[in-house]
């Protein structure tokens, strides 16, 4: 039989299904909202800045184009610019790049050949790679129309964008504008990331606190219901409940009171039935004994009366066992000295042990345990009685105890007949017995009393012969 888990209550209380779901849900929602807000805000700011810088670079190209005399464009159409023409354009470019904004200006033709450049070190009459990248947009420009390229990073690692303006059918103006503030806009992405991370951590903490405030009263109700399940109807409902939890607590309190009333009525009924049965049994027993004494004085057989008395004793034993099973005394645990208890157990069974020549051996590695004294005595009496009925003459019953840092065990082992495999799962059922004169309540009472003391009982057949019943309990620190 598998060992039962006697930490069931603590295990249930440690489950965090709803706590995990609350934290997970809040965190996911927060992450989605933060990511959505951050992404939207970042793109809004970036687009706003790009619109501003694009508008600015377009304005710059128009301002510079207005400074150019169209007659000089005619000169450019004749061929390579003269020194005078170059000086004219260099002067215009210099005036507009005095603050390094724009940082680069040049004029190119429809074949994308640079003719005049603001940087005198640049070799002219060559293609510019940036023009090829924006070739399609440049070719679609109408005269006196401008457009701005998308931002790009220059060789120096800074952000720029190009503004192009069509001067006439043959020539274009290119202006390279700094977009250094775009770097700061890009830094917003990191700011939003850290903001989202902090918001998520705060959400996890807040949701954990909210979940704890919800789960804490639920755990109190679980403890309350467990006490009711144990039959402890004196337990009080948890205090400081609010809202729906308070309604649930009130409903459970009503359920407890109803169960208590039903239990009380049932116990009263059982006590009344037992009383009504015991009274006539007592009278029958008394008169049977009187008749037996009369017959003895007349030297007549009392065999039939002995049978009547035996049946009466059997009924009385059955009633007592049934009452013990239906209404066990609430456990009051204390530290029990096992050596003293074993002496008591031996004295109880001494006549039967001597008659059957059965020996009881003790191996008490742990001398004290926490348990209700009357309950443990009743359990051991039932277990030893079963073993005594199971062993043959010259049999052996062994009682052992062990303990570690947290748990203890008491085992009752014998070399009797053992428990058949088909009955091993039935032996704790009420009224199940394989003995002709058994009540079938001994092991049921053992299991119930063990449970009352927050312990478990299990049975295994020994390898050679007989079986071993073991009580497993927890040390009370």
What does this molecule look like?
The chain has about 475 residues and is α+β, with helices and mostly antiparallel strands. It folds into three domains: about 1-230, Beta-Lactamase (2-Layer Sandwich), CATH 3.30.450.20; about 245-325; about 335-475, 2-Layer Sandwich (Heat Shock Protein 90), CATH 3.30.565.10. It is built from twelve helices and 13 strands. It has helices at about 10-15, 15-65, 70-80, 85-95, 130-135, 135-140, 180-230, 245-295, 305-325, 340-355, 375-390, 440-450; strands at about 105-110, 115, 145-150, 150-155, 160-165, 170-180, 335, 360-365, 370, 395-405, 405-415, 455-460, 465-475. Strands 1, 2, 3, 4, 5 and 6 form a six-stranded antiparallel beta sheet that branches. It has a five-stranded mixed beta sheet with strand order 8-10-11-13-12. A two-stranded antiparallel sheet has the order 7-9. Strand 5 (about 160-165) and strand 6 form a beta hairpin. Helix 2 (about 15-65) runs antiparallel to helix 7, helix 8 runs antiparallel to helix 9 and helix 11 (about 375-390) packs antiparallel against helix 12 (about 440-450). About 20% of the residues are buried. Residues about 1-15 have low confidence and may be disordered.
């Amino acid at each position: 039989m598998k060992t039962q888990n006697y930490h069931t209550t603590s295990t249930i209380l440690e489950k965090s299904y709803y706590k995990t779901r609350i934290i997970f849900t809040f965190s996911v929602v927060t992450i989605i909202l933060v990511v959505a807000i951050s992404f939207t805000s970042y793109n809004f700011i970036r687009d706003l800045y790009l619109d501003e810088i694009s508008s600015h670079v377009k304005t710059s190209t128009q301002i510079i184009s207005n400074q150019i005399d169209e007659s000089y464009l005619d000169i450019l159409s004749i061929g390579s610019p003269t020194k005078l023409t170059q000086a004219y354009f260099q002067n215009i470019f210099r005036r507009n790049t005095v603050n390094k904004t724009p940082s680069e200006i040049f004029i190119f033709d429809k074949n994308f050949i640079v003719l005049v450049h603001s940087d005198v070190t640049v070799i002219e009459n060559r293609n510019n790679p940036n023009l090829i990248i924006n070739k399609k947009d440049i070719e679609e420009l109408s005269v006196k129309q401008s457009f701005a390229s998308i931002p790009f990073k220059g060789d120096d690692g800074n952000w720029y964008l190009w503004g192009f303006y069509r001067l006439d059918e043959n020539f274009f103006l290119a202006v390279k504008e700094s977009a250094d503030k775009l770097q700061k806009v890009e830094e917003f992405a990191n700011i939003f990331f850290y903001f989202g991370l902090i918001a998520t951590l705060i959400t996890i903490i807040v949701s954990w606190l909210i979940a704890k405030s919800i789960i804490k009263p639920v755990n109190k109700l679980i403890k309350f219901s467990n006490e009711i399940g144990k039959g402890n109807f004196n337990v009080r409902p948890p205090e400081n409940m609010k809202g729906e939890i308070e309604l649930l607590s009130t409903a459970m309190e009503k359920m407890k009171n109803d169960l208590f009333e039903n239990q009380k009525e049932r116990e009263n009924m059982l006590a009344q039935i037992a009383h009504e049965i015991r009274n006539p049994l007592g009278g029958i027993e008394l008169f049977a004994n009187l008749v037996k004494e009369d017959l003895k004085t007349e030297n007549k057989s009392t065999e039939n009366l002995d049978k009547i008395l035996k049946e009466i004793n059997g009924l009385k034993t059955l009633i007592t066992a049934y009452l013990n099973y239906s209404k066990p005394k609430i456990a009051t645990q204390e530290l029990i000295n096992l050596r003293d208890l074993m002496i008591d157990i031996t004295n109880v069974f001494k006549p039967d042990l001597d008659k059957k020549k059965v020996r009881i051996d003790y191996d008490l590695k742990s001398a004290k345990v926490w348990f209700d004294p009357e309950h443990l005595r009743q359990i051991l009496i039932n277990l030893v009685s079963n073993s005594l009925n199971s062993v043959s003459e010259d049999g052996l019953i062994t009682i052992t105890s062990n303990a570690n840092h947290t748990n203890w065990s008491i085992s009752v082992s014998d070399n009797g007949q053992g428990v058949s495999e088909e009955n091993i799962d039935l032996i704790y059922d009420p009224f199940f017995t394989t003995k002709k004169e058994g009540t079938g309540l001994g092991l049921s009472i053992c299991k119930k009393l063990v449970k009352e003391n927050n312990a478990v009982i299990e049975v295994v057949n020994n390898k050679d012969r007989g079986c071993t019943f073991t009580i497993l309990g927890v040390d009370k620190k």
